Amino acid sequence: MYRGKEGQWAFYLHRIAGVTILLYLLLHATELTAPLFGAGFAKAVSAAFQTDSYQLLRLLTVGAIIYHALNGIRIMLMDFTSWGTRIQKAVWYVVLVVFIALYIPIISSTLPTILKMGGQ
Amino acid sequence: MAIKARKFEEARRQATFNLELAWWVFMRVSGLLLLFLLWAHVYIGPRLISIKAYDITLLALALLHGSNGLRYVLDDYIHNGSLRVILKSTAYLLAAVLLLAGALFVAKL
After folding, report:
1. Does A111 have pLDDT greater than 70?
2. Which of B29, B59, B75, B87 should one mutate to test binding to chain A, selecting the residue with the greatest count of A CBs within 10 A?
3. pTM (2 d.p.)
4. Which of A34, A57, B37, B109 has the fewest CB atoms inside 10 Å of its own CB, making it the most exposed?
5. Domains of chain A, first to last
6. What is the least distance, in Å, from the CA of B85 to any CA of chain A?
7. Which long-range contacts (C-beta less than 8 Å, at least 24 apart) are formed by A94-99?
8. How many CA atoms lie within 13 A of A59 on its CB side?
9. What ipTM goes with this model?
10. Neighbouring C-beta atoms of residue A96, cutoff 10 Å
């Protein structure tokens, strides 16, 4: 199931999404706790997080979280049910369809705002 | 069950509790919990952010799930032993600092 076909792609995407989320989590936790490390650090951090590249990273992370969560459910179905592995390919296509259905509306509602911010 | 063994290898063969298995189970359980906790964090966040136990649980689960996931990734792709140790230590240290900072931040709220 992990050799070259759908399962392999599901696995790679899961890892890439996971590392993206962890990177964002580190930045997000730094963002919130920056005042603990001094006012100067807090000021520099808050300036860096106002940029639209950070807003784009946030949008990307939302997508990563949606995929990682949906594929995580697929993994649990494979691990904890007797039928999960048998239908894992079909389930992965369901994951992709649900991912697109959830993510496209979020992109279309936030991306214009982010890009307008950059134009100012 | 107590382990009666003279060598580490023997002890490991006798062990009924396996740390790697515990992490495997943790990844599934915490993943499922994070699904609900994160949903609430995003959609009703401003009202939840002052519930200390909730925030600490979310941060701790996310950091543990994330650093263990990173451990899997580093174990798979970094073949240079000493580099792997350096990268893992850095990641664990960073996670520990952020968990501590997060706990301090939440305690002050």
Report:
1. yes
2. B59
3. 0.85
4. B109
5. 6-119 (1.20.1300)
6. 18
7. A95/A10, A95/A67, A95/A70, A95/A71, A98/A70, A99/A63, A99/A66, A99/A67, A99/A70
8. 19
9. 0.86
10. 17
> Band of the pLDDT at B60, cuts 50, 70, 90?
very high
**Number of residues assigned to chain A:** 120
Report DSSP state, residue B93.
Answer: H
Chain B residues within an 8 Å CB radius of A21: 66
Determine contact: B69 vs chain A, CB below 8 A.
Answer: yes
Task: Give me the CATH code for the B18-108 domain, please.
Answer: 1.20.1300.10
Q: Which of A18, A21, A33 sits opposite B101 (nearest CB)?
A: A33
The mean pLDDT value of chain A amounts to 89
User: Residues A24, A16: contact at Cβ < 8 Å?
Assistant: no
A96 is written with which tokens? Answer: 């992709």
B5-43: per-residue pLDDT in tens? 777 777 777 766 778 888 999 999 999 999 999 998 888
